[in-house]
Specification:
The complex is a heterodimer. By secondary structure, chain A is of the alpha/beta class. Helix content of chain A is 47%, strand content 20%. In chain A, strands 2-1-3-4-5 form a five-stranded parallel beta sheet, sandwiched between helices. Classes of the chains: A alpha/beta, B alpha+beta.
């Protein structure tokens, strides 16, 4: 399964890499919002992990644009952010995100979530 | 015998009646003569004594009347003296005091040019007229007082710094002050009679969220509004008052504060995420040894970053509260430069670190630890932001009473936009290369503050893709360096 991690912190991308590695995931990376949109449109991943505070285009806007476009609206979007205030979570869900992880997050919880998405996908196929 | 008895009776009568009757006669004579001062006393216990007592009462009343009359006469003389009445050749004068609730308000004077005697009816009429005039006078005085109070209230209303709006019971504008005119763009003349909501449209982006006033020309101003009904004496609502305060400044401070908290929270959570994440993977997952090692390195890096961030935050807090105190002394800048460069030389593989120092440098006045911190930060940045390598050149020059130090790199450089915000707290250039360095966004802010605490200046020049130069000055001192080899 193809998934995209968009976060401006290289170390966070590395953490997601290490968390999911060895399980047959094709992991794509983006370091800012514009790049995230490009990769999501070009590569059509099943899942996008989106940081909110990103250069050029923030994660909320990326999520909104993905969900507004019929070609990308099926992509499961999970917000991954350091903002823990309730208002931020509500904004994420209002932007159309499917789930929400607050930093610091548990990599195994993230792995479970990704596997659930993969399971749903194979069930649907 | 009969004669003798008659004589005796006459003597007795004379004693009992004759002497008191004489005293009474002389007392009434005094009264008739105008002497109202001498009291009438006759201590005999019979009818003559009673007459004397009545006479004394009359005398006291008369004396009182005369005194009042005298006062009135004196007063009228003053009135006549003070007015044009003097020019009248009046023969008769009637004065009526104007009293309202016991307060003396004035005097009603009537003059006749011929002899005139008031009859009872005229007297009563004059008394009535006096009361009416006194009542009207009192009302006029009260009106004047009310007008003065209203004038004061009006002056306060128009001069008050917050916007104030008055409405009638139907919510139509009756008055607005200058501050509200400035805030809304409406003039009082234009606004008068219009519905409240038209003059004061309030917009909120979310329910319960902050309220913005929309001005006549569409400008939005954050405001705090407090309203109250206006009651008349019988408790009926006769209108409303709204006080509208411009809270832009407060809102701004709030936003800066919450942005700072949000930034600090974000900056703290990022290294925490890495520590938590990699530690959990190490504990719960089987990983090849080299993966374990790289995960441990990530944890180590993140912990260092967290510690650095906390140090920087504490420095900033100490600086801003004035608790960071310098310990300045004469300093040999050349040796400080050499000392801070050596660890960089040991680490930097892609960079060449060069210095250009004049043969003799004046002694600099500074806190050795802080000057090292300034230089370390600038040289560290020069290396961090020239990922392709190249030369980092540290130059020291004397410039009058100051020494100028410059750190030049051949790195990624900055756009003019970035330069504008470079020294702001938590400002980080929005670039992947910058993000990768894991800085706190506080380094240059702290460095600038440190230089300024020394009485120096820090500034930068930069060219995107070519490199940057950071320069700062430090004051020199005429003091000799104690125990220095130079």
């Amino acid at each position: 399964m193809k998934l995209l991690i968009a976060d401006d912190e290289p170390a966070v991308r590395a953490l997601v890499h290490v968390t999911l590695e060895g399980d047959d995931y094709e992991i794509l990376e983006a370091a800012d919002g514009v790049e995230a949109l490009e990769v999501a449109r070009g590569e059509a991943p099943r899942l996008v992990l989106l940081d909110i505070m990103m250069p050029r285009l923030d994660g909320l806007e990326v999520c909104r644009q993905l969900k507004a476009d019929p070609d990308t609206s099926d992509i499961v979007v999970v917000m991954l952010t350091a903002q823990a205030q309730e208002r931020d979570r509500d904004q994420g869900l209002a932007a159309g995100a499917d789930d929400y992880f607050t930093k610091p997050f548990s990599p195994l919880a993230l792995l479970n979530m990704v596997e659930r998405v993969r399971h749903n996908q194979s069930g649907a196929d | 015998m009969m004669l003798a008895a008659l004589v005796l009776l006459a003597v007795w009568l004379r004693r009992a009646v004759g002497a008191p009757a004489d005293a009474l006669r002389s007392a009434s004579g005094r009264l008739a003569g105008g002497d109202l001062e001498t009291p009438v006393t006759l201590s005999v216990d019979n009818e003559l004594g009673a007459v004397a007592s009545d006479l004394e009462t009359m005398r006291r009343r008369l004396a009182g009347r005369m005194e009042a009359l005298e006062r009135l006469r004196h007063l009228s003389a003053q009135v006549v003296g003070a007015t044009s009445l003097q020019r009248l050749t009046e023969v008769a004068l009637a004065l009526v005091p104007l009293l309202s609730r016991g307060r003396f308000l004035g005097l009603l004077a009537l003059c006749w040019t011929e002899r005139h005697q008031l009859d009872r009816e005229q007297e009563a009429l004059l008394g009535l007229a006096g009361n009416q005039i006194a009542g009207a006078l009192e009302a006029a005085l009260r009106l004047e007082e009310a007008e003065r109070a209203a004038g004061e209230a009006r002056a306060v209303f128009y001069a008050i710094a917050d916007g104030v709006l008055l409405t009638d019971p139907f919510g139509r504008v009756t008055a607005m002050n200058r501050a509200l005119e400035a805030l809304t763009g409406w003039t009082e003349t234009d606004a008068r009679g219009r519905p409240y909501a038209e003059v004061l449209p309030i917009a909120t982006d979310q329910v319960g969220g902050p309220a913005d006033l929309v001005s006549r020309y569409g400008r939005r101003v954050p405001v705090a509004v407090s309203s109250a009904p206006i009651f008349d004496a019988r408790g009926r609502v006769v209108g409303g008052v709204d006080v509208i305060r411009d809270v832009s400044r407060e809102r701004e401070i709030d936003e800066v504060k919450s942005a700072l908290i949000s930034t600090v929270s974000h900056e703290l959570r990022t290294p925490l995420t890495l520590i938590h994440g990699f530690a959990e993977l190490l504990v719960l997952r089987d990983m090849p040894v080299e993966r374990q090692r790289s995960s441990a390195v990530e944890i180590l890096d993140a912990s260092r970053r967290l510690a650095r961030l906390i140090d920087d935050l504490l420095s900033v807090s100490r600086m801003e509260s004035g608790r960071l105190v310098l310990d300045p002394r004469p300093l040999d800048l050349a040796s400080v430069v050499e000392r801070i460069l050596s660890p960089f030389r040991a680490m930097a593989a892609k960079h060449t670190l060069r210095t250009k120092l004049p043969g003799s440098l004046p002694v600099v006045w500074g806190d050795p630890d802080k000057v090292e911190q300034i230089l370390t930060n600038l040289v560290g940045n020069a290396i961090k932001y020239s990922p392709g390598g190249g030369e980092v050149l540290v130059t020291v020059d004397q410039d009058g009473d100051t020494v100028q130090v410059s750190v030049r790199d051949q790195g990624i450089g900055m756009s003019p936009r970035d330069m504008g915000q470079l020294f702001e707290k938590f400002y980080r250039v929005d670039r992947e290369e910058v993000r990768r360095t894991g800085g706190t966004g506080l380094g240059l802010y702290i460095t600038k503050r440190l230089v300024e605490m020394h009485g120096g200046r820090l500034w930068a020049e930069s060219w995107p893709g070519v490199g940057s130069v950071f320069r700062f000055t430090l004051p020199t001192t005429s003091d000799e360096l104690a125990g220095s080899g130079r």
